[in-house]
Fold:
Amino acid sequence: MTKSQMVTIKGTKDGLVLRLDDHCSFSELLEELEEKVQGTGLEGVAEVQLHTGHRYCDEQDMKSILSVIHHSPHLRVSKVQSDVISLEECQQKLIEKQSETYIGIVRSGQIVKAAGDLVIIGDVNPNAQVIAGGSIYILGRLKGIAHAGAKGNLEAVIAASWLEATHLKIADKMETMTDELTILSEHPEMECAYIHDNGQIAIDRLQELRHLRPGLATFKGGI
Amino acid sequence: MGEAIVITSGKGGVGKTTTSANLGTALALQGKKVCLIDTDIGLRNLDVILGLENRIIYDLVDVVEGRCKIHQALVKDKRFDDRLFLLPAAQTTDKSAVSPEQMKKLITELKMDYDYILIDCPAGIEQGYKNAIAGADRAIVVTTPEISAVRDADRIIGLLESEKDIEPPKLIINRIKGRLMESGDALDVNEITTHLSIDLLGIVLDDENVISSSNKGEPVVMDPSNPAAVGYRNIARRILGESVPLMSMDTGKTGFFGKLKSLFSK
Structure:
């Protein structure tokens, strides 16, 4: 049996790649990895990318792999890449990509939550909350509290036919509609809130959205 | 089989009890058999407004705890020969003395004998509110043209809409002050109804006589010339399903400003 096939180290234009075979047993792999890692003639510290191929590694497996690699003082893992994810993760990702639609009025004290984008057809009244992992689009009046990018997505936006919120939150940024912002949105019709380059929440006309956040578009068809 | 209607608002002091007393009286005047229930246990008022305070013997808590029969606790309003009754709240205990299940049972029983059961709800959204809405088929939300009252109404409407057994609530805007609304210093009827977006059942003008007649124990609705009384009577007719065209915002306004003008020109 030709050894040294399970773990390969290659230099690519993106840096060192440590590729782990996905057909052998996990214990064999770890053993060989250990050997390889100790045997590298490297000097200094090199960053490597870890490719696990089609092997599914849960958190525990990944921990053991990383600890073996980090045994060597010369290697640091900069990135882990895998070709497989679990069904659960996949479903979670799908949900986050989806947009959910709520039709009706969100009234004081009520909370509407979505994992991905959230479309509200109706008003969001004062003291009501709408929270989304992605962006929030409201066909109606936003007069309450909106929190887009709740899991930290800085690219998320809040758009409304009538943007008159008391509080706007995007990722971990929060803005109360103070006088300045109210003046900014003197005509609260068709506006959107986003995180400006300066790190603060800004409000602009909805028409500017395609320049501000071109990445939000998912339209694939030709024009 | 009668119908149970809860009158609620969230905020205190917007006129739930006054509205209950006046609508009950107006329905009785229309020939219906009405039972009013005061669920504000510990802070009862409905008996005072109806002028029945000194005739209370048993109360709501006595009934649910089986210390008396329902008919023993009901106080008859003698002005409306056998058409208006009050089930008063207890004054010596608190809201937790009654459970929603007990209220439901009580109201189901009362529905056999009465055309309308009006339940006067206490302020707030706690136990007292839950008791009050437990047996209701319909709900009326009372608000005034103040932002704080409208906010609370919004909250209450949200809670009522999530109740499966209650029809979508209807709105009464109480204590409308003509001059303030005209000058834009108070919310106008249109603003309130679009904000809350539920059906408007009627509007009631602010009138000094509402207070003075309440103090005398005679609901203002008994005086047919009073502007507030007209509002209550119209609402009662709409509850009966009569085709009083539901005062649209425009006619509501002009009708009311017209009335106001005629008052001044007198």
Summary: Chain A has two domains: 7-81, 91-216. Chain A has a mean pLDDT of 87. Helices of chain A lie at 26-39, 59-69, 87-97, 179-184, 209-212. The longest helix of chain A spans residues 26-39.
